[in-house]
Amino acid sequence: MAQELLYPVVDGKKQCGSCREWLDLGEFTKYRDKYCSSRCKKCANKYGKEYRDKPENKEKRRAYQKKYMADSLNRENKNLYIRQYKKRASVRAKNYKSNRLWLKNEKQKAVDYKSGKCSVCGYNKCLSALEFHHTNPEEKDGYNSHWTFERNKSELDKCVLLCANCHREKHEEMDKYEQT
Question: What pTM value is reported for the model?
Answer without folding.
Answer: 0.51
